[in-house]
C-alpha cells in the first residue's frame, strides 16, 4: 500500500506540473492571438511527438520528453539588415514560404543566419502583418510575460487557498504557553535520547510547570504574547534565580526556580553553540492564517529569497555535482529538479505519520512553490528565457521613446537574433544544470525527513 501511495503522490505532482506548463504556454498563446499574431504550435514536452491535433492554424500536442513546453509564434526574429538574400519557395504541402539568408563566414553569424532562415521558412505570403517582431514593444512584453505570470498566478491562488484555510506552515507564531516540559537536561549534541539517572532535572520540571501554563512574566518583566522576549530573558539569565508569574486554570501564581546553563545554537540562522540560560519548556504555537493581502506579503518575501537563490544557483548546482562524485554531502538546501519534486510528493503521500490534511497541504505547497520558481526563473533577462525577450522589447520601447523625444529617426526594431550566441550558451548551461540536478535527485536524493 505504501508503494501505491508513493506512486499516487508522484503521479499527482507530475500531472500538476504538466498542467502548469500547458497553462504557461497558453499564457503566451492567448495574448499573441489576441494581438493578431500567428501561433503555429502549442506543445507540452520536447522530442518526438506523441499526439497532436491541428485546430485552425495552430497544432496542439504532447511530446515524449515532459521537461517543458513551447509555443511557436511566427516572426520572432526580424530579417537582418545587411547582405540579405530573400527566396520564395514551395514547401511539401504546396505553400509558398520565404527564406531569408545572410552570406557570412563567421561561426556565430552563420548560426544567426541559419536561425533567421529557419524562422522565415514558416512565414507565408499573408503573414507580413502578423509577425511578432513587428508588434509594438508593449504587446511583446504582454505576450512574453504572460507565460511566467500564469505560473505566478497559479502559485498565488494555491497559496491563498492554503493560507486562508489551513494557514501558512512556514509561519508559526510561538506563544509563551507551555506545550511540554523536558524532564531532564540533555546535551545538545545528544538531543533526542531518553533521560538517564545521571541527567539533572530541568528547572521547569523541578519547579512543577505543566502543559497549558501561560508564562505571564519573567523576573518581573511582563512578556505578554511574545515568546521571543521570554526566550531572550531566559537565555540571558544564565544560572540565576528565576521568578515566573504563570496563569494556570485562570489563576495567577508565582513559581520560583533557577535557570541552568547549557550549550544551545546561537539562533536558527547561526548554529554556533553558545552557553545560555535554560528553563526546559517547549512553547505552543499556532499557524498564521491570512487572505490575499497576507499572501501577497508572503510572496514578496519569497521573491527576495528566489532572486537570491537564482544568483546562487550555479554554485548550488556545483555543490550537487560534488555530492554526486562523493566529494561532499549534499546540502539540505540544494536545489532539486522535477524528479526531486516528484520524490518529495511520493514520500509525503506515503508517509504514515502525516495526517491526510497535512499531506494535501504539503502537496499543494510543493506545486505552488514549483510554479512560483518557474515563473520567477523565466523572468531572468537572458535568452532563451522569456525574460530575454521582455528585456529586448523594453529596450526597443526605451530606444524609440528617446529617439522621439530628441527628434531623431525611428531606430527600428531590436534585433534579438544578434543575442542568439548568448542564448545558445545560456541554453547549454541550463541543460547541464538540469542534467546534474536530475542525476543528483537519483544518486544522492534529498528526503522530506532530511
UniProtKB/TrEMBL annotation:
* Primary site of residence: membrane
Question: Which prosthetic group or cofactor does it need?
Answer: Zn(2+)
Q: Which InterPro entries match?
A: PDZ_6, PDZ_sf, Pept_M50_Zn, Peptidase_M50
Q: Where are the transmembrane segments?
A: 6-24, 360-380, 422-444
User: Its topology with respect to the membrane?
Assistant: Multi-pass membrane protein
User: Where, per UniProt, does this protein localize?
Assistant: Membrane
Care to name a GO molecular-function term for this sequence? metalloendopeptidase activity
One Pfam family cited in the UniProt record for this chain: Peptidase_M50
Family membership = Belongs to the peptidase M50B family.
The entry's protein name is Zinc metalloprotease
Q: Which organism is it from?
A: Nocardioides gansuensis
Amino acid at each position: 500500500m505504501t508503494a501505491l501511495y508513493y506512486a499516487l503522490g508522484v503521479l499527482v505532482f507530475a500531472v500538476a506540473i504538466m498542467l502548469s506548463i500547458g497553462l504557461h504556454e497558453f499564457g503566451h498563446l492567448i495574448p499573441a492571438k489576441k494581438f493578431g499574431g500567428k501561433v503555429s504550435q502549442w506543445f507540452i514536452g520536447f522530442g518526438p511527438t506523441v499526439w497532436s491535433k491541428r485546430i485552425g492554424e495552430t497544432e496542439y500536442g504532447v511530446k515524449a520528453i515532459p521537461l517543458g513546453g513551447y509555443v511557436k509564434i511566427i516572426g520572432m526574429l526580424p530579417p537582418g539588415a545587411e547582405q540579405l538574400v530573400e527566396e520564395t519557395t514551395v514547401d511539401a504541402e504546396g505553400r509558398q514560404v520565404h527564406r531569408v539568408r545572410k552570406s557570412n563566414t563567421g561561426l556565430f553569424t552563420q548560426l544567426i543566419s541559419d536561425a533567421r532562415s529557419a524562422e522565415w521558412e514558416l512565414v507565408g505570403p499573408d503573414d507580413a502583418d502578423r509577425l511578432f517582431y513587428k508588434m509594438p514593444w508593449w504587446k511583446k512584453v504582454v505576450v512574453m510575460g504572460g507565460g511566467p505570470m500564469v505560473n505566478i498566478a497559479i502559485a498565488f491562488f494555491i497559496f491563498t487557498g492554503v493560507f486562508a484555510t489551513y494557514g501558512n506552515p512556514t509561519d508559526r507564531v510561538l506563544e509563551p504557553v507551555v506545550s511540554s516540559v523536558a524532564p531532564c537536561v540533555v546535551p545538545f549534541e545528544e538531543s533526542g535520547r531518553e533521560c538517564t539517572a545521571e541527567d539533572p532535572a530541568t528547572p521547569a520540571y523541578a519547579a512543577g510547570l505543566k502543559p497549558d501554563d501561560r508564562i505571564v512574566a519573567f523576573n518581573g518583566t511582563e512578556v505578554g504574547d511574545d515568546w521571543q522576549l521570554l526566550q531572550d530573558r531566559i537565555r540571558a539569565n544564565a544560572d540565576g534565580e528565576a521568578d515566573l508569574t504563570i496563569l494556570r486554570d485562570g489563576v495567577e501564581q508565582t513559581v520560583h526556580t533557577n535557570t541552568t546553563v547549557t550549550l544551545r545554537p546561537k539562533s536558527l540562522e547561526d548554529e554556533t553553540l553558545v552557553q545560555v540560560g535554560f528553563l526546559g519548556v517547549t512553547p505552543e504555537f499556532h499557524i498564521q492564517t491570512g487572505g490575499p493581502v497576507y499572501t501577497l506579503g508572503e510572496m514578496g518575501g519569497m521573491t527576495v529569497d528566489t532572486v537570491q537563490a537564482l544568483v546562487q544557483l550555479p554554485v548550488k548546482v556545483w555543490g550537487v555535482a560534488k555530492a554526486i562524485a562523493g566529494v561532499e554531502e549534499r546540502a539540505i538546501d540544494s536545489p532539486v529538479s522535477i524528479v526531486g519534486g516528484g520524490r518529495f510528493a511520493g514520500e509525503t503521500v506515503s508517509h504514515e505519520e502525516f495526517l491526510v490534511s497535512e499531506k494535501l497541504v504539503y502537496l499543494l505547497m510543493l506545486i505552488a512553490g514549483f510554479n512560483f520558481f518557474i515563473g520567477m526563473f523565466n523572468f531572468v533577462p537572458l535568452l532563451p528565457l522569456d525574460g530575454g525577450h521582455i528585456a529586448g522589447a523594453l529596450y526597443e520601447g526605451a530606444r524609440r521613446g528617446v529617439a522621439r523625444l530628441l527628434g531623431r529617426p525611428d531606430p527600428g526594431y531590436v534585433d534579438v537574433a544578434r543575442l542568439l550566441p548568448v542564448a545558445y550558451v545560456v541554453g547549454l548551461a541550463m541543460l547541464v544544470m538540469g542534467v546534474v540536478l536530475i542525476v543528483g535527485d537519483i544518486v544522492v536524493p534529498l528526503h522530506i525527513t532530511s
